[in-house]
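Hello again, I could really use a second opinion on something today. I've been staring at a protein lately and its backbone has me curious. Can you walk me through what the tokens say about the fold? Take your time with it, there's no hurry, and the full record follows here:
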Amino acid sequence: MKEAIRRKRKQLGCLPRSKYDIIVRCLNGSFDVPVKKRTPEENNCLAMIRKRKDFELGDRGSLLCGGKQVLVKEDLPRFVEKMFMENKGCGARVI
């Protein structure tokens, strides 16, 4: 018998603030927009949640996907600078 091929999911990159907020509201249970009034962006986020079942909220309310923190695009430069300072400038590929 053939063994089931296990596909490795591509990691989720950073998200725009609007998508991030929609996913967090949905996981909190506070997303209550009627189906007819949903925007395409909201529908895309809800489909993403249905397809990727590894979304969860961290202890501080941050969004996690597969146990790793999901970044917001607007916060990315600040995060990279913080990691650069923590690593004292070495290991740029790790960041």
In short: The radius of gyration is 17 Å. Residues 84 and 91 are 8 Å apart (CA to CA). The mean pLDDT is 85. The first helix runs from residue 17 to 28.
